[in-house]
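@channel anyone free to eyeball this complex?
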Amino acid sequence: MTLLRLKRSISLAIIAVITASLVQACAWSEAAPASTGSAGARAAATPPMGWNSWNHFGCSVTEDDVMSAARALVDDGLLAAGYRYVNLDDCWQASHRTSTGELTADPLRFPHGIAALSAYVHGLGLKFGLYATPGRYTCGNLYNDYPGRLGSLGQEQTDARTFARWKVDYLKYDWCKADHDGVHAQHAFTLMRGALDDTGRAIVFSIHTVPEVPVSSWRAGTADLWRTTRDIKDDWASMISIARTNLALARFAGPGHWNDPDMLEVGNGGMTEPEYRTHFSLWCMMAAPLLLGNDLGHMDPATLRLVANRAAIAVDQDPLGSQGHVVEQGRSHSVIVKPLADGDVALSITNESASVQAVSLVQGELGLPNVPTRVLDIWTGESRSWTTGPLTTTVMPHDTAMYRLSGASRH
Ligand code: GLA
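replying in thread with the prediction:
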């Protein structure tokens, strides 16, 4: 065991002891949970930002992986940039519930338990998220030979109380063929929403129901965000097709209720740097949740520069909460416009082709609310004036140019 690992184990053991006493103390309040009715209602006023274990670690995730991601968020300045949720996805569970019917952590990969891990994450100033499902099985049970029947069906109140006791701030509640168990989507998600609210803890509620589209009207009143597509893969074709599907759903998104085109693959190695720039730009233009899905403990500088770009993040997190919409879709490139709260407008140009594209945009054809006079290039950081004439730019294959346009009234 290295010195670092030893230190980590000791600190986790201490946290485990402290949390065990807190858990014990909290158990008393469980008998009469406060019912707020809408504890999590505004928990995601802007799209949630953070990290999730699934895209990189899948079913092999360990507590060390999660702790290392949490430390990297802090050490690399990503918490300061807005990334605050550390979400442990599927495969955290032991294959059986406890004798009292509670979910519990896999003892080999999470030897100190989820309460201790959550306390570690909170101790770094971050928030903690977890994964569950409304049917009998999780997707890991169904698709990854993960042992057990670890869904929450019939145990919703117990599981919500367990999550609240562990100080979970974010629950991803994933469909995983729950219809095969006779589960009705609206009923199941409303049930868990109510169970979470009854704990009195503000918990972001992220749901995935199949089919993802059409977006049923109950989702915005029940969940903070909902998946709009099947799982993303770390390749251009998957990412761009997910973006196209999600772009068509712009009208459903707004403050506190977001379309979720799935988590980020940036930095996982399957796309080029321009393709990851496109991925990140499009997610920001779509006001999508920004959940990093790479191994933060081993992130290269280019990836960090990309995901830490404050001007891009500001577009995603803009308080107006407007999802960008397509104003021009050609065979080679697409143009998206996203109005911002201060009257500025974000604009992106994605080159979807395999050749270099020279693009020229005429103000009058963009449907902008006012005449922009300044252009900030979000990826180069250069600012220039836009007087008359078209905005011209050259976009490399599969790359995206992204701008913030400021109107005359502000300069
Ligand atoms: C589904 C979800 C993924 C992930 C896995 C875990 O496939 O869409 O994001 O949570 O389940 O098993």
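from a first look: Residues 54, 89-90, 131, 138-140, 174, 208, 231 surround alpha-D-galactopyranose (CB under 6 Å).
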